[in-house]
Amino acid sequence: MMNMIRKIICAAVFLLAALFTKAQPFADEIAAFKKQDSIAFPPKHAILFVGSSSFRLWKDVQDYFPGYTIINRGFGGSSFPDVIRYADQIILPYHPKQIVIYCENDFANNDSLQPADVTGRFIELFNIIRKKYKKLPIAFISMKPSPSRTRLMPRFEATNEQIKNFLATKKHTSYIDVYHAMLQADGTPMPNIFIQDKLHMNAKGYAIWQKIIEPYLLKN
User: Fold this and answer.
1) What is the value of pTM for the model shown?
2) Rounded to whole angstroms, how far apart are CA atoms 89 and 83?
3) Which residues does residue 189 pair with via DSSP β-bridges, in sequence order?
4) Is the pLDDT of residue 22 over 60?
5) What is the pLDDT of residues 43-64, one digit of tens each?
6) What is the per-residue burial (b if ≥16 Cβ within 10 Å, else e) of 109-131?
7) φ, ψ for residue 62 (rounded to 5)?
8) What domains can you pick out in the chain, each with its CATH number?
9) pLDDT tens digits along 168-212
10) Burial of 8 (0-12, 13-18, 19+ CB in 10 A)
C-alpha cells in the first residue's frame, strides 16, 4: 500500500513539474537547446551570444565571424527576466570565454517600465554571471532603433546610456554601440536594413552589426 502511495505521489510531482516547465515562457525553445546540447555539447571557451530575437534570427552568425567559435542562445522575443530565468540552463553551463548580451523587449512587453527598471534587470543578470564567472568578459550590445519601435527610442537611448555607465565601472566589460550606426542623418532608423516587420534586421542590418561587434570579440 505504501509503495502504491509513493508511486502516486512521485507521478503527481513529475506531472506538476512537467506542467510548470511547459507553462514557463519559451520553454519549448529552451528544451530544444538542451536537447541539442545533449547530442553535441558546445565546446568550452567559445563566445556565447545570448538574448532575444535579433540573435535568434541571426542563424548564420557563425558565417559573419569565421575566426571565432560562436554559441547562439537567442530565443523568442525574450526580455531580461526571461534570460535571467534560464541563465542556469543557457548561460552558466557552457564555460564560455566571453558572453555577448542583446535584449530589447522589456519596454515592448511592459509599457510602464522606465530606463532605471530595465537597467536594474541587466545588472541582476550581470551579477548572476559574475557570481560564477568572476572575471569573464561580458559585452552588452546597445538596444537598437527600429521603425516599429520609434516611440521607445528615448527609453532605449536612456537605458543604453545607463548600462554603458554601469559597465564603465566594471572590469572585463564592453559596451557595443550599434544604435547610432543604424540611424539616418535625421535621427530616424534606416528603413532599408529591416525586414517587412520593421523590427528585425535583414542582411544589411547584420552587416552593420558584424562590423561594429567584431573588434570587441576575443580571438581564439
Assistant:
1) 0.89
2) 10
3) 183
4) no
5) 999 999 999 999 999 999 999 9
6) eeeebebeebbebbbebbebbee
7) -60, -35
8) 42-216 (3.40.50.1110)
9) 999 999 999 999 999 999 999 999 999 999 999 999 999 999 999
10) exposed
